Amino acid sequence: MNRLLVLFRRLEGPQTIGRGPAFWTMFALVLLVACAFPLLTDGYTVGNTVYFFVWVFIALSLCLIWGYGGSLSFGQTAFFGIAGYGYGILTLNFGAAYGFTLIALLLAVGIAALFAMLLGYFMFFGRIAGVFLGIVTLAVTLTLERFMAQTAGPEWHIGVARLNGFNGMSAMPPLTIPWSGGDIVLFADVGLYYLVLGLLVLVYLGLRVLMNSAFGNVIVAIRENPERAEMLGYDVRKYQLVTFVIGAALAALSGVLYTAWGQYITPSSMGMTAAALPLIWVAVGGRSDLTSTLIGTLLVLAVFQALTIYGSQYALVFMGALLVLTVLIAPGGLVLAVMNQLSRLATRRIQGK
Amino acid sequence: MALLELRRLNKHFGGLHVTNSVNLALETGEIHCLIGPNGAGKSTLFRLILGEYHPGSGDIYFAGENITALKSFARIHRGLSVKFQVPGVFKGLSARQNLEIALQSRHRGVALEQEIDRLLSFLGLEAEQGQTAGNLSHGQKQWLEIGMAISLKPRLLLLDEPTAGMSPEETHLTGEMVQRLNAEGMTVLAIEHDMAFVRQVARRVTVLHLGQVFAQGSIDQIIADERVAAIYLGQAHA
Ligand SMILES: Nc1ncnc2c1ncn2[C@@H]1O[C@H](COP(=O)(O)OP(=O)(O)OP(=O)(O)O)[C@@H](O)[C@H]1O
Ligand SMILES: [Mg+2]
Description:
The structure holds 2 protein chains of 2 kinds. Chain A is about 70% helix and about 5% strand. Chain A is mainly alpha-helical.
């Protein structure tokens, strides 16, 4: 009971923007609208919204590793891909009965996390940091893409699951919840929507608690000054590794949900563009805060999709321009800058009264 | 028994012999000052003690244990703590958060908040607690980092030029603080250029010159030593 209270208190703190009744009322309202949303719109829009939500996990993983931890990682896309393929291979082989898709989800995330643990061990305990961390993780991502792209031949299969090279894997079962009255299959509409929304709320609040805890303090301290953090007795590399693995697991969750959503996964989901886009969402949103990352990602995704209608090359150019604009006028993130401005106005209003 | 003992400690940077067979023994409970001209190897010696640099040869003993191969954080756990020459605060975080990060491994919940408040008032930084540490004055950063260093309740406190950038009054206050901590049982090794501070606090003084222990004794003995005056003068002329 007491523990629970401590957790609740950690929902707010210096590491996360948003506190007090005003913020949580807003949060509850947004959540209410999000819950009612499928009732107000058509199936296509719901499915499309799930697609947006799915990407938020990888964005939050970058927020954690890069924004809070200070290490720029291109590896999130690799973990995304590993988990996506992992889910495909597992479910194509073992099917969806007895709730196996949910076990496959956990296993796929676990495999990606294990991979991150190995990679992270060599990087952090090998004292690879800064730009080199970005280079190593990018190399890993692109190597995986190249590797998967050349698996077109029939010899590339795991069990009955063909890897299919550049065309990728498809036709894996969607997530399925076992139920006494018959399994509930979560196709990419209302069912999956509520599952992903639930996970999103859980992850968002969980990360808020984590970042405002003693652990979060150390993560931010390492970003600010790793030497000082070590000289306060913290084993910096261990903290970096744990953060990296948590981030990998979140990116992997994105990968599994994406694969289950569209029932396909291709090597290009691990390509250069795929690796760069999450960085742009997070940079434009405001990488040093969970809320600005979440809002920014959803906004940029929506705009990106709207522009894609006129041609994806224009959308990509727009993304580049947006990134340059961010770096020039609000290096901490556009959404974050707006949020800070709003909260400044709000406090001035209160003080004015 | 010596709390800290350096035995024939050597460190090279390429061809530069930065510490040359340094022997130094620190008694438990003393305040010891390390002085010497710029580039003498004082800060390097601290980094060797802390495990940021590894010696080419020689050993470091702390409370009887050979800690030469230990990682930095493990040495901190043994009871070492440091304030760096260039203030190493968490610039983007508030002064209060800086102290919280230093204190949180020893305190929790309400006790943690009380301990932060106590330390803030001890350092005279109550009014600045909400300010971003990077925006504090140089002297305030020094105090903040000293606060972080002492919040670990170390057995040996290493201070690298704690009074740099402070006014004479602030320097004197820092001296009093060091004496108070020492009275509570903390052993202190301080690098200082400010002779007023050294005179105020030090029981023993070691002079480091060109990476070697050049002289050792009470402050009066050191000041009376013409050879010591010569190396400082030599530098002034150089
Ligand atoms: N990482 C390094 N690589 C190469 N040379 C170094 C390194 N660190 C220190 N030095 C050199 O070692 C010598 C001693 O430096 P150190 O910082 O220990 O001097 P100091 O006694 O603390 O001087 P000051 O009083 O100016 O702080 C200097 O000549 C310095 O240039
Ligand atoms: Mg120095």
